[in-house]
């Protein structure tokens, strides 16, 4: 009886050893089980976009009484005003700090996108002006862009921002590139302006340097412009500040050890 009782345990042992060898085939070490797989962490950009989408999905308390379209336009316009102010354009305090109630009083509960148009001047150079358009089309084509260019020409303006509902057509993108020598038009989707990304805790402080500060930086560290770290053209923060090739931005990150801030240049 005893050998018969031991036989299942011996078979179970052989079966267990065989399964270990099969499982360890991917690790290249016969006879040893492979280590458990490590769960990969999503990249910081993915974490940031997920966090921003979560914030954008929940309107603040003051906007819950507004109609959905009005509340959406209020948030987009407010982020746009903050972005323009941080770029160095003059924006009135009542616009920057305007409440949802003030927005309804000025534009109504369900305003049209054409009412959101903005016209601003740079604080240190009033001749540097910019217009912001809010087209009604779901997917913007060439015709609205030509209309915006006509308005820019009438106002002697060479820069503009276009806030679109979803996207623009390939022909519209080509038209923007072809007229870039005379008219510089940037475009953002509504979803990109529902929340101010520069106010998120994952985004460090960015300070755009002027030409004098840039020259001092290069002289201090004995660097050439090409030796500075680069920022991609389509980086969300670079687009937010409207950075162009050759500009330098100082990035200040919180220090986990010292508790202060550390700076790093980029262009």
Could you walk me through the main structural features you see in this protein, from its secondary elements to its overall organization?
The chain is α/β, with parallel strands linked by helices and 267 residues long. The chain has 9 helices and 9 strands. It has helices at residues 2-23, 44-57, 68-86, 93-96, 100-107, 142-154, 170-178, 211-221, 236-241; strands at 118-122, 125-133, 139-140, 159-164, 167-168, 184-189, 205-208, 249-254, 261-266. The strands form 3 sheets. A 4-stranded mixed sheet has the order 1-2-4-6, with no helix packed on it. The radius of gyration is 28 Å and the shape is globular. The N and C termini lie far apart (82 Å).
Features:
alpha/beta, 9 helices, 267 residues, 40% helix, three-stranded antiparallel beta sheet, four-stranded mixed beta sheet
- Alpha-carbon distance between the termini? 82 Å
Indicate the radius of gyration in whole angstroms.
Answer: 28 Å
Question: What proportion of the residues is helical, as a percent range?
Answer: 25-40%
- The coarse silhouette is globular
Q: What's the story with the biggest beta sheet?
A: 4 strands, mixed
Low-confidence stretches: 7-41
Multimeric status of the protein: single chain
What is the N-to-C succession of helices and strands? HHHHHEEEHEEHEEHHEE
How much of the polypeptide forms β-strand, as a percent range?
15-25%
Q: Order of strands in the sheet with the most strands?
A: 1-2-4-6
Mean pLDDT: 81
């Amino acid at each position: 009886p005893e050998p018969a009782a031991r036989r299942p345990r011996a078979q179970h042992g052989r079966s267990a050893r065989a399964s270990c060898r099969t499982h360890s085939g991917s690790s290249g070490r016969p006879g040893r089980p492979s280590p458990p797989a490590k769960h990969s962490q999503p990249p910081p950009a993915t974490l940031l976009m997920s966090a921003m989408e979560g914030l954008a999905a929940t309107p603040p308390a003051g906007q819950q009484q507004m109609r959905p379209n009005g509340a959406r336009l209020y948030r987009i316009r407010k982020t746009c005003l903050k972005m323009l102010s941080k770029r160095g354009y003059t924006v009135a305090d009542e616009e920057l700090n305007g409440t949802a109630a003030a927005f309804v009083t000025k534009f109504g509960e369900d305003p049209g996108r054409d009412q959101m148009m903005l016209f601003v001047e740079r604080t240190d150079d009033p001749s540097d002006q910019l217009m912001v358009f809010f087209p009604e089309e779901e997917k913007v084509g060439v015709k609205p862009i030509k209309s915006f260019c006509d308005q820019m020409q009438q106002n002697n303006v060479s820069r503009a921002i276009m806030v679109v509902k979803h996207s623009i057509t390939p022909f519209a993108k080509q038209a923007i590139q072809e007229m870039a020598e005379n008219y510089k038009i940037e475009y953002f989707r509504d979803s990109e302006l529902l929340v101010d990304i520069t106010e998120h805790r994952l985004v460090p402080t960015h300070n755009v340097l002027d030409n004098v500060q840039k020259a001092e930086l290069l002289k201090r560290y004995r660097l050439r412009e090409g030796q500075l770290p680069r920022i991609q053209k389509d980086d969300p923060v670079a687009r937010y500040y409207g950075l162009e090739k050759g500009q330098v931005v100082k990035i200040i990150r919180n220090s986990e050890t010292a508790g202060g801030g550390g700076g790093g240049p980029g262009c």
